[in-house]
Specification:
The complex is a heterodimer of chains A (about 110) and B (about 120). Chain A has no helices and twelve strands. Chain A is mainly beta and about 110 residues long. Classes of the chains: A mainly beta (about 110), B mainly beta (about 120).
Chain lengths: ~110, ~120
């Protein structure tokens, strides 16, 4: 079945460092891909999404490109802030609108 | 700014008691999802509905959990009887039902503690 694999966390960075969180997927069709973010004590929020191959999703300085050839959707940000500390979830949508989530990657940014 | 709302936000109960969690999806959304989040298991899909009809509840322990949508503005998740292993944060999410490209909008969650 469809699945999502994310890098293990936590990822610990200093403020202004470059961020990459890896995400790869397995799917039989052509899913949409998502990154959700969960801040402490809150529900998940959509961060960005891409609906077809080579699309780039972007929001709040974060970017991810839908790479069909490598089945990847890696999350990147050029300069992280302390306020970016959260758990990041990669997900894909199956044809029935269910989201298949990865296990989440905790990001900790220190001043 | 339309949001998914959930009540209660926190619930502490004793083993064996009935627990009911409520969710109000975003107006106009026709898919509703219930998730459970724990440190050990991560985020698990328990059940989901389209146009109020249950489509998949395979993630839910059938003997004690039940999920319903009495109307388009209310979804409920009930646990009877509750057990300590049910302690978790339960999230409701809704979506517009555009197949294959949907964004799900999550509520703030209900933190359940069963003693």
């Amino acid at each position: 079945g469809d699945s999502v694999t994310q890098m293990e966390g936590p990822v610990t960075l200093s403020e202004e460092a470059f961020l990459t969180i890896n995400c790869t997927y397995t799917a039989t069709g052509y899913p949409s891909l998502f990154w959700y973010v969960q801040y402490p004590g809150e529900g998940l929020q959509l961060l960005l999404k891409a609906t077809k191959a080579d699309d780039k999703g972007s929001n709040k300085g974060f970017e991810a490109t839908y790479r069909k050839e490598t089945t990847s959707f890696h999350l990147e940000k050029g300069s992280v802030q302390v306020s970016d500390s959260a758990v990041y979830f990669c997900a894909l949508s199956d044809p029935t609108d269910k989201l298949i989530f990865g296990t989440g990657t905790r990001l900790q940014v220190f001043p | 700014d339309a949001r998914v709302t959930q009540t209660p936000r926190d619930k502490v109960t004793e083993m064996g008691q009935e627990v009911t969690m409520r969710c109000q999806p975003i107006l106009g959304h026709n898919t509703v999802f219930w998730y459970r989040q724990t440190m050990m298991q991560g985020l698990e899909l328990l059940a989901y509905f389209r146009n109020r009809a249950p489509l998949d509840d395979s993630g839910m322990p059938k003997d004690r959990f039940s999920a319903e949508m009495p109307d388009a503005t209310l979804a409920t998740l009930k646990i009877q009887p509750s057990e300590p292993r049910d302690s978790a944060v339960y999230f409701c999410a809704s979506g517009p039902g555009t197949q294959g490209v949907d964004t799900q909008y999550f509520g703030p969650g209900t933190r359940l503690t069963v003693l």
